[in-house]
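Sequence in, structure out. Go.
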Amino acid sequence: MATDENQKKPSQTRTKDLNHSPKKAMLLSIIPGMGQIYNRRKLKGIAIFILFAAFAFVMIEFAAAGLQGLITLGNEARVDDSRVFLIEGILALLFTVFYAAFYWFNIQDAKVEAQKIRNGWKPGGVMENFHNSWDTAFPYVMIGPGFALLIFVVILPLLFMGFLAFTNYNLYNAPPRSLLEWVGFENFIRLVTLSEWRETFVSVLSWTLTWTFVATTLSIGLAMFLAILTNDKRLKGKKIIRTILILPWAVPGFVTIIIFSALFNDSFGAINNDILQPLFNITIPWMTNVMWSRIAIIMIQVWLGFPFVYALFSGVLQGISSDWYEAADMDGASRWQKFTNITFPHLMFATGPLLITQYTFNFNNFNIIYLFNEGGPAVRGQNAGGTDILISWVYNLTFTNSQFSMAAAISLILGLIVATFAFFQFRRSSSFKEEGNN
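Output:
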């Protein structure tokens, strides 16, 4: 059987070709495609050579001009727009990286195939090679359009923002009236050394971290408490209660925020005029006092955030087998022991990554800060409001104060904080570890 099968597929017979050199294939691949031709893959080599030649012919001038513009950011004020030069330079840089990666792939591909030939592999016919190549490349062909869109919609704007952080782009030297200049880490140094920037940055960052932790944790805690309460078998009318608890999720968030902004208004708000003043003879400056504004925003976010987490927890709780609790009852476990050893671990394992996204979302939750009080009230000696978080401060720096380079620098720091936090939290989550073990 084995002999007949080998006779039917002579191309798979392992006859080593010790004279075929992978090193020679790599050296020939300095000229793209030559290594593949050396490996007896003529059509593949010709195709690679044509692709490289066409790319070089079409893009070499644009790439060279773009990279030069990325260095100079223009030569003549009121004629050259540094922003255009910056975008073209980033595109040229992306094309250059893509070209270099493709060039490296060309060399590695020639080396790998040469090593396979040396070990006895023989290239098949044209159609066989085409089918093999198509099977290998099919996943990359499918994700190619999405990846290209990702580059221009996500990566390009992020790189533009990152490069702006190292320029002097502000209201007083905005292009095309003036040319931008590279200033290195000057913007980051100003955040640390200048008292106005340093105090504002520390204040806003500390409030952002406090806001993120307190508002999100309270939302999760309230959702967990209500989910466990409504999952109790002794409770009647669960469907109605669950529907009512999820209703805040059905209302668009910006509508809820605007309504609460009116309710908390110092002058005509219903909370002061219809509740606190008649019942307790007090009024609270929700909009004009920093502490009370922050408390109001946290309460609103708890109201907005708990329904989604409640829905998650309710689904997970119904999936926990009752056998666990029956076994715990037989062992004489208390309610707290059943919660800490059964309920809580199951909830965290199933929803851990989603709960992490709640923290990262609130860290950048611009809507509630802007719609409630536009980041106010004002704070003396700072260029940010009392409830401004980093993202809303960046917005004001960009569209109100035109401090584009400083806003970009803060955004870069903001992105690094969020990415680092999310990465380490995902690595520590049980579901991530379980996926890694698989």
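Check: Residues 14 and 121 are 6 Å apart (CA to CA). Residues 126-164 form the longest helix (39 residues).
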